[in-house]
Backbone:
DNA sequence: GTCTATAGGTCGATAGAC
DNA sequence: GTCTATCGACCTATAGAC
């Protein structure tokens, strides 16, 4: 395994793929998912565009690999810390908070990944990759939730529903923040999503 | 104003734009937002691709017009009925319910529109159109909420936060349902989003 | 590196509308 | 006749595949 940047020491396919995916991420973050092409990725990596096709077989395969790796990475970072062993409401609020913190730490990357996912969903060749992504997402939520249950020594009457609700809340929260970038309201919005609209102060 | 379909009776620009936008919607729904091109739209409408460019000035202008018209139409239908004058929690649950009903009535169209919005957000030429769309969305929520307040004779301590939370919940709900198509859980997930995670049944 | 397909944009000419 | 909508052809850039 060599680390030199500019030389081209006949990397193995695996390494080469890794390097090209890194380049693809850079292109995507800086110029948008629409700018992804064999050529733009190759240029970024400093190789002949032919090589990208060789390494992945097709553009669709490149995008599928990119989607897979990036969504997994993101999910791993986002849900890395277990839910605090408090009430479900508090635990969910904490999870939403750390999720949004992750989004805010690199909004561009998250936004572009969402764009790529939307792209993939509309493509016959990539729709499976998109499905796999969201399935993995739900699985990761499920694991955290089961851990929380174990810590508290309880069971949830409808685990699947809670997973779905967390999924929806997290996704909507990210979408809301990305479109408004309203930092001032973050805490309160999370509070309403986790605690429900019944707790909102209403004045006569 | 002629109504014949196949002849080309020299439509005015306004009519022509309308017709072309209809064709663009068909292309988008059937083949995805990525398939939108001057040529695909023109072919669908049965005119020379040159004409699309002529009518809109550029592809970006076409997409902006499409985004504008479609998102406005959708929002108008979704938030047509006022919130029921009950507690906020019940009102929000009802709103989420009718919102999702709308999504479920034509999932493809909603999905494609979301795709187009994601596309637009990554494009310098279209980012303003995307912003305008979400601003209009929030405005429509605000109007319904103010009506609800007036009906109940109350005020909300933090109107903006509630708007944001509804925005996030609705968006996340749609996203969740579109990826899972899980009809069986819809009611319960809406219940959790509107009522909060504090109300979820936890068993020892 | 080359081939081919596609896409956005433009030019000149034509044909309907007034 | 003039104006505008319309068309077919063409140019150039780009992108995927081999």
Residues:
């Amino acid at each position: 395994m060599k680390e030199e940047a500019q030389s081209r020491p006949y990397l193995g396919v695996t390494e080469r793929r890794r390097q090209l995916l890194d380049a693809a991420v850079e292109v995507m973050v800086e110029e948008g998912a629409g700018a992804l092409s064999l050529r733009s990725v190759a240029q970024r990596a400093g190789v002949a565009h032919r090589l990208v096709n060789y390494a992945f077989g097709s553009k669709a395969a490149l995008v599928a690999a990119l989607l897979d790796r990036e969504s997994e990475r993101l999910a791993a970072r986002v849900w890395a810390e277990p839910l605090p062993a408090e009430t479900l409401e508090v635990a969910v609020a904490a999870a939403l908070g750390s999720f949004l913190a992750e989004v805010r730490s690199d909004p561009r990357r998250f936004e572009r990944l969402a764009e790529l996912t939307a792209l993939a969903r509309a493509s016959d060749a990539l729709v499976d990759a998109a499905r796999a992504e969201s399935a993995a997402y739900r699985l990761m939520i499920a694991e955290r939730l089961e851990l929380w249950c174990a810590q508290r020594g309880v069971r949830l009457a409808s685990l699947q529903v809670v997973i779905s609700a967390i999924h929806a809340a997290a996704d909507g929260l990210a979408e809301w923040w990305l479109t408004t970038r309203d930092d001032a309201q973050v805490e309160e919005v999370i509070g309403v999503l986790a605690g429900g609209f019944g707790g909102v102060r209403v004045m006569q």
Notes: The domain at 1-57 of chain A is CATH 1.10.10.60 (Arc Repressor Mutant, subunit A). Chain A touches chain B through 60 residues (CB under 8 Å).
